[in-house]
Amino acid sequence: KAKTVLVLYAHAFHHVKPLQSFSKPILEGYQSGMRTGDKEFGMWCLLFSVGVIHMTGKPLKVIEEQCQVSITQMVELKEEDQASMQRMYWQLYLNLMGSSNNTVELSGKAMDEKEVVFTPFS
Fold first, then answer.
1. Is 47 in a helix, a strand, or coil?
2. For each successive 10 residues of the chain (122 residues), what is the average pLDDT?
3. Nearest CA among 21, 24, 25, 44 for reference residue 34
4. Within a 13 Å sphere around the CA of 10, how many CA atoms are in the beta-carbon half?
5. 19 near 56, Cβ under 8 Å?
6. How far apart, in Å, are the Cα atoms of 66 and each of 16, 46, 59?
7. Closest CA to 95 of 108, 82, 112, 114
8. pTM of the shown model
9. Domain residues of the chain, as ranges?
10. CB 61: neighbour CB atoms within 10 A?
């Protein structure tokens, strides 16, 4: 279910459904992934859920806190691809909140872009 929810809501339904309706199904995808052992796609759903709260206009502080919590869980479950991507978003939100002198550089509390090694997904 986690895979199906992620693919449908991240790649198809945004054309025909309001983003405000995404939170519950994405959370269900996350919960299903965790319940069935599909932690990889459960964590992708968790990452996407933070993006949804961003795109629906929630306060930056709420989004930043959700990033922090989700990264902790991703690291605990050894889902480093999702954690790395979420760190980029977390640093973006920190920058938007004014916690960086250079807002166009993803460097600070969450990550340092100069230390990131980009590799293709396997």
1. helix
2. 92 88 94 97 96 95 96 97 94 93 86 79 59
3. 44
4. 18
5. yes
6. 26, 10, 11
7. 108
8. 0.88
9. 2-115
10. 10
